[in-house]
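FIELD: query
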Amino acid sequence: MENKKFTVLSLDGGGSKGVYTLGILKELELKLGGKLHEHFDLIYGTSTGSIIASLVALGHDIPSLEKLYYELIPKIMCGNSKRERSSQLKIQADTIFKDQKFDAFKTMVGIVALNYDKQTPLVFKTNIQQAHGMKQSFQPGFGCTISEAVQASCAAYPIFEIKQVQTQNQGLVNAVDGGYIANNPTLFSLIDAYKAVGHSVENTRILSIGTGRFVEKPISLRMRILKRFKMTQFIERVFTANTVSNETLTRLLYPDLNIVRINDVFSEPEYGTNMVEVNQVKLKKMLQLGRDSYAKHEKELLALFNLTR
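FIELD: result
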């Protein structure tokens, strides 16, 4: 493999808190210039990260994603049942991505979900280079649309319904949120870069972005009565534990990896939020906190991309 840096963007899951991710990416896009997909060879995303990853890889700029998220989140998260939320997720995903398939992406992509029946990773990929075996039957995105893959990655059961996807090479699959297997998909993206595509760890650089760590905020009296808060709190803690575990494993397995990880902690009660946040003031505040995190880590980011101030 030629001595060229292979650059990876890895985006965590976290529901509404994806606006924090967008705050970081907003400043990064301005710094790098052009569209973000032009600066990455591989983009991985889980759950809300899969929505952002897909739109970035399709060539959308971050200001358009910011506007979209402020409209999208209330439409999906205000549903009173998992059926309503899943229905809205499908409507919105189909509206955004239409019937586009994985050949529409402008760079290599990985979208992480979990095969609910087999309890194994279900990773939708663009390129046969990303296959770790059985290349003869590889199908980009398993033959699914981008919308279907994103819905599978975002299906945080039981907040959402289990998503059934009809694949070309695995048949009908019951899928749930990728956060249950890799809420932080960095390790999966690195395995693709190193084991499948064939780049050395030394030639790989990774920007891994989380959705921030905030004080848990009760959702509302009505939702607490429906026990939704406790369920959301449990799922969020599972995803957080998964995120930390994957981050730790990545650093232990690849101590010399050129990686910048941004996932700052905000322990002040005023920033309290959760993965189903719909308050516009809170959402816009999270985006600003993402911009603050960019500023905090700017020196590391400049070094990662060999830039000067």
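FIELD: remark
Residues 162 and 176 are 6 Å apart (CA to CA).
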